[in-house]
Amino acid sequence: MTSISLNPTTKYLDGDFGFKPKHENSFLNSKKMNSKGCNMAILQLSLMIFDFVMDILFVSKEGKAVEALYIPSIIFLTVPIGINTIGAFYIISKENKEGLFFDWFTQHEKVASVFTVLSSADIEILSTLHSHLAGFEFFHAPTSTKGKNRIFWISCLTVFVEDIPQMIIQLLYHNSVVTYDIIPLLALISSSLSLLINIIGRSFQAINLYRHGTLEYDATEHKIKIDTNY
């Protein structure tokens, strides 16, 4: 019994009628999480592009300062680019065999092509296409689970053939030169951040894959579904 039922003019109203605060809070929490995810996606994309640019500048401007490191620097720059490029085009070609993805691709061909080319710098850039970034429709690619898994495994490979070797080369360079310019410093910082983020990110994805069978298990979304059922 509520105070509504005690009043003669309101006793026929349903005292239980109204929105559920719990569900509303869940919606607001979900929206807040999406906003944080958007900011994180922008930050990661910016860092990946910046790291790629700094790697190129390091090799082109400072690579010959230490002759012994020049050839390894070129190898561990070009080989990952080749792996990422082949991987990106392979993933897109496989995804285009799926009807939903092909429909999305034909509608947003220019954006998809640009990000496929950018993925030569880092295969994870391809994940931006299904990141729902800023709510743009062209960032809602219906990438299949297999496609996401392929991105994951290629990114794991590049940790060992790109991030770690480049980090070692830049540390050896730091210990071999007398003067240390701004480009090697920025390259070292970006490589360190990139390696750290990749290791942490791939580790969490591996845990999700092992525990939940998916790379992108969303505990918040799972909780919202449970709350809605109640």
Question: How would you characterize this protein structure?
Answer:
With 230 residues, the chain is an all-alpha fold. The protein has helices spanning 21-62, 67-95, 99-107, 109-118, 145-176, 182-212, 219-229. It has one domain. It contains seven helices and no strands. α1 crosses α6 (182-212). The longest helix is centred in the N-terminal third of the chain and has 42 residues, at 21-62. The chain crosses the membrane at residues 40-58, 70-92, 151-173, 179-201. This is XK-related protein.
Secondary-structure blueprint:
Elements: H1 21-62, H2 67-95, H3 99-107, H4 109-118, H5 145-176, H6 182-212, H7 219-229
Helix pairs in contact: 1-6, 1-7, 2-5, 5-6
Organism: Diversispora epigaea
Protein name: XK-related protein
Transmembrane segments: 40-58, 70-92, 151-173, 179-201
